[in-house]
Write a sequence for this structure.
């Protein structure tokens, strides 16, 4: 299909994923968001407690028309004219939080393996073009948010997986990681 059709399919997939999250179908929602190449920072912005300190949540908007694609929507129509905003998640029950964290863990681990969702450091940022963003600075911000959130998630739902995660290259914010590890009394992980 055309680039406009591919962008529309991704947007529809993202909307479906976000709707599933809102309905507390966390696993299905995160799978859908990964398949639709949703940006990790956008997904994490729906539950801002996981974002690194100092990183404000994004206003999550899904554009139904591709930006810059010729003929998308007709003359004079802007992609922002057809954008839907996604409200943040509000979770009160611990079981829901654990369910979200478990699903986000799988989403973030998949994003870390898929350079079209999360380009690796030094990789040509054009690989992220299909996800709707480009540039090494933006990719670095996405990696930092994803890895720092994954650290927090692992501490909450799977502490034995923490050491293998920390032993591999990651983009966690060092100062924040130290504070989180100290709070969870994971002193041996600091060494």
């Amino acid at each position: 299909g055309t680039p406009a059709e591919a962008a529309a399919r991704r947007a529809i997939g993202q909307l479906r994923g976000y709707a599933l999250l809102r309905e507390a179908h966390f696993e299905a929602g995160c799978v859908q968001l990964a398949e639709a190449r949703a940006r990790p920072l956008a997904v994490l912005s729906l539950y801002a407690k996981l974002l690194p300190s100092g990183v404000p949540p994004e206003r999550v908007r899904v554009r139904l028309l591709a930006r810059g694609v010729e003929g998308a929507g007709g003359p004079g129509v802007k992609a922002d004219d057809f954008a839907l905003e996604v409200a943040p998640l509000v979770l009160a029950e611990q079981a829901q939080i654990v369910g979200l964290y478990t699903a986000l863990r799988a989403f973030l681990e998949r994003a870390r393996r898929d350079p079209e969702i999360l380009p690796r450091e030094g990789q040509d940022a054009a690989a992220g073009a299909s996800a709707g963003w480009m540039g090494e600075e933006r990719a670095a911000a996405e990696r930092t948010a994803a890895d720092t959130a994954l650290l927090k998630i692992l501490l909450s739902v799977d502490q034995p997986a923490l050491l293998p995660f920390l032993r591999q290259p990651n983009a966690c914010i060092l100062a924040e990681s130290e504070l989180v590890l100290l709070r969870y009394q994971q002193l041996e992980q600091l060494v």
Notes: The two ends are 51 Å apart (CA to CA). The chain is about 50% helix and 5% strand. The mean pLDDT is 83.
